Amino acid sequence: MGVNIEPERFEQLVQRAFDALPKSLQLENLPILIDEEQLKPTGKPNEFIAGEYFGCTHKNLGWHECAVAKRVVVYKKAVELGAHNEKEVLASLVTLLAHEIGHALGFDEQKLRELGVTLVP
Fold first, then answer.
1. Range with the lowest mean pLDDT among 12-16, 75-79, 101-105?
2. What confidence score (pLDDT) does residue 121 get?
3. What is the pTM for the complete model shown?
4. Lowest-confidence range among 13-17, 29-33, 70-74, 116-120?
5. Residue 13: which H helix or E strand, with range?
6. Pick from 19, 17, 31, 39: which is nearest to 93 by CA?
7. For 17-41, what is the mean pLDDT?
8. Cα(56)–Cα(36) distance, rounded to whole angstroms?
9. Bridge-partner residues for 35, per DSSP?
10. Reduced 3-state DSSP string for 33-53
11. How far is CA 104 from CA 7, 54, 58, in A?
12. Is residue 98 predicted with pLDDT exceeding 60?
């Protein structure tokens, strides 16, 4: 399983995924970066982290007062490994971005599951 998408095309898919999110999740000033090389294990065999949010949350600290550089990182290789085709990559990216932006808004894993924005069953 897995696809290999050219970096420029992958960036376009990330943008399409972002544009598909509800307006309430399209946070301004939250960079979405693509890491093309790294594979970060989850701790389970053959599972890798597809994305991460770094920074403070709206809930814990004023959004503009955060000293940590806020950002979402998408791990391209992990996303590609979990998909058979571009359509699956796009669907995965929509869920991934909603999930990580949810963390930026202060939602924990339980709340994200309740909202149906979970990456792992």
1. 101-105
2. 43
3. 0.86
4. 116-120
5. helix 7-20
6. 17
7. 92
8. 24
9. 75
10. EEECCCCCECCCCCCECCEEE
11. 25, 8, 7
12. yes
Name the DSSP letter for residue 68.
S
| Domains of the chain by start residue, with CATH | 7-114 (3.30.2010.20)
Would you say 49 and 78 are in contact if contact means Cβ atoms under 8 Å apart?
yes
Distance in angstroms (rounded) separating the CA atoms of residues 113 and 33 = 24
3-class secondary-structure state, position 81: helix
Strands 51-54 and 71-75, bridge-based pairing = antiparallel
Strands 51-54 and 32-35: unpaired
Residues 6 or more apart whose Cβ sits within 8 Å of residue 108: none
| Total residues belonging to the chain | 121
Give the closest residue to 16 by CA, choosing from 26, 6, 24: 26
DSSP three-state, residue 64: helix
